[in-house]
Amino acid sequence: MHTSIATVSLSGTLTEKLAAAARAGFGGVEIFENDLLACPLAPEEIRARCADLGLSIDLYQPMRDVEGVPEEIFVRNLRRARHKFELMNRLGADTVLVCSSVSPDAVDDDARAAGQLARLAGLAEESGIRVAYEALAWGRHVNTYEHAWRIVEAADHPALGVCLDSFHILSRGSDPKGIEDIPGEKIFFLQLADAPLLAMDVLQWSRHYRCFPGQGGFDVAGLVRHVLAAGYRGPLSLEVFNDVFRQADAGPTAVDAHRSLLLLREAVGAAELPPPVVPTGVAFAELLTPDAEPVTALLTALGFTRAARHRGKPVDLWQHGEARVLVNTAATARRDGTRLAAIGLESPDPAAAARRAEALLAPVLPRHRAPGDAPLDAVAAPDGTELFLCATGDRELPDWRADFADLPDTPAPSTTRIDHLALTQPWHHFDEATLFHRSVLGLTAQESVDLADPYGLMRSRAVANADGSVRIALGVGAAPTDDTVHAAHIALATDDVVAAARAFRAAGGRLLPVPRNYHDDLAARYDLTDDELETYRDLGILYDRDAGGAFRHCYTETVGRVFFELVQRDPGYQGYGAANAPVRLAAQHAGRR
Fold it and tell me: CA-to-CA distance for 584 and 150, rounded, in angstroms?
């Protein structure tokens, strides 16, 4: 089963879309009519371009409003179809998608629809073309795959079959099990898309909010299992209408698309990939900075000690308990200012984790190593963050800490560790980032949440391993150009956030001030003592609670594009203080001004 993608799913010109699909590893494409009409190349030249790229043209689409119409209109439709079939022969496409009619001229008459589709299929057959009939979820009279199949079955023409589209089926809540009643040879084509679960008009939902399998709320894998059980052996093809994808660079989008199909094929047993190796902890976070002084001042106030220095690179290891931060002052830092550039993830088998990452199209990063450096596998996340796969303290595997020479100052004992990391994604990589962390790293994604920012909405979605030793919050900001507010941050877990905040402030650190109104409201929402409230007000500590317990947290000032969070998490609390995000964001905006 090869993979295919509709050109409408990608941005750019037709030739750019074809090149991106080929580079990402697709075997074929669906050519969307509007893409062809806007292309200066002749159909024969497009055919040749696809052949040169190793792409088959699996479908030409769409033909609309063909069936169930008065005879005089259908005659005109046949004339239109004859022209399309001639064009398809020049293009080298042998299957055309015909959508169920939405025309006000269409009548609710299955016999007429079947008869007209049979005549259309007869004309198509003369040109060596098959007709794949698809039920649009908003079709005027035919809007379910069961209804479309009844009409195709009644038409009884060898050149007529159905096209099944996961969005049209699942958005209506149809039961896909009935697909198994359709003979596999009559399923001419399968189009796949996921979508977030939204309560809105299905047409608008389809045209703007589709996404790749695994990025939404549909059980696309379950549907594909039914299609395969029916005997379908054609392409797995993506047809995704999405405003973000159509504005983003086609190259990364195509890679993300192909990754989603690789993961889908694994889920349905149609492909075998290296199994996921779930990370078991955070080894380190690496800050890249052109100016170490403000970063090291912040780390010192937080209780970190400079524990070691890299033997051959301008990198220092700072440690506070189990929390480790690398400060890298390499020349490349001068371009972007201080930022979170890399994360070390503890892995029980770094090499196996890297093999899975590579199989799922994650860029494996070359690493310039001196002869004595530990061999570390690293891959790039969609936002460019480098993810190092580490085995800290494993006697049988190389330990990255061997690259560092110990300094005289030994870190004091502490229970501090990294609770979670928050990474701000480019606006067009949010869904891709979620799928990447789920598929490549084997982390579990929580539900996406919207966070109110003074200048719009932020989206956030957390991924984590089973015991919470790895937690990453992925966010996309309302104001993408505001790097100070929508910065990455490192959350440090402490047993006593009040003591940690006081120690930080006493050491010269600056905590993010929180408006008094927040704590006045806190008194109304939770049964906290006056002393607690006054302490939280003084230190800018925010408070949240769920069924599992409480969460107390506060924030430092931002340095470059990074800030820290001090958190005290009750063992049963599963969240990240999302209810307090609007207050934090407003306070950071105010501080920036």
Answer: 57
Output the six-digit token pair for 53.
């790229």
Distance in angstroms (rounded) separating the CA atoms of residues 441 and 253: 19
- For the chain, the distance separating the N- and C-terminal CA atoms, rounded to the nearest angstrom, is 56
Q: Which of 251, 274, 492, 285 is nearest to 387 (CA)?
A: 285
Q: CA 541, CA 535: separation in Å to the nearest integer?
A: 8
Backbone angles phi, psi at 219, to 5 degrees: -90, 75
Dihedral of CA atoms 510, 511, 512, 517 in degrees, nearest 10, equals: -130
> Which spans in 486-557 are helix H?
497-506, 516-525, 530-539
The separation between CA 251 and the C-alpha centre of its own chain, rounded to angstroms, equals 15
DSSP letter (8 states) at residue 478: S
Residues of the chain with pLDDT under 50: 479-481, 484
Contact 303, 416 (CB under 8 A): yes
The DSSP bridge partners found for residue 566 are 492, 554
**d(C-alpha 192, C-alpha 4), whole Å:** 10
Task: Please say whether the beta carbons of 196 and 218 come within 8 A.
Answer: no
323-328 and 315-320 beta bridge pairing:
antiparallel
Pairing mode of beta strands 488-493, 417-424: antiparallel
**Could you identify the residue written with the tokens 């380190």?**
284
- φ/ψ of 182, rounded to 5, equals -90, 130
DSSP letter, residue 245? T
> Half-sphere exposure of 8 toward its Cβ, with a 13 Å CA cutoff?
23
Token pair 């020479």 in the structure block, residue: 405
Q: How far apart are CA 153 and CA 148, in angstroms?
A: 9
pTM: 0.89
- The pLDDT of residue 370: 64
pLDDT at residue number 591: 73
Residue 4 in tokens:
């295919």
Q: What share of the chain is helix, strand, coil (3-state, %, to 5)?
A: 35, 25, 40
**Sign of the C-alpha dihedral computed for residues 345, 351, 353 and 359 taken in this order:** positive
Task: Provide the H-helix boundaries in 233-360.
Answer: 250-267, 292-302, 350-359
CA–CA separation, 391 and 193 (whole Å): 38
Indicate the SS3 state at residue 244: coil
Backbone angles phi, psi at 307, to 5 degrees: -100, -25
How does pLDDT run across 96-128, given as a tens digit for each residue?
999 999 999 999 999 999 999 999 999 999 999
Type of residue at 88: M
CA dist 418 to 38, 85, 468, 470, 556, Å? Answer: 52, 61, 11, 9, 15
Residues near 72 by Cβ (< 8 Å), separated by ≥ 6? none
CA distances from 411 to 300, 317, 322, 342, 346 (A): 11, 11, 10, 22, 21
The reported pLDDT for the residue numbered 333 is: 57
Instruction: Report d(CA 440, CA 356) in Å as an integer.
Output: 6
**Cβ neighbours of residue 14 closer than 8 Å, sequence gap 6 or more:** 7, 31, 35, 36, 38, 39, 41, 46
Q: How many CB atoms lie within 10 A of CB 509?
A: 20
Nearest to 3 by CA among 158, 224, 170: 224
Kindly give the residue spans of alpha helices, DSSP state H, lying in 320-473: 350-359, 430-439
pLDDT at 481: 47
Question: Is residue 46 classed as helix, strand or coil in its secondary structure?
Answer: helix
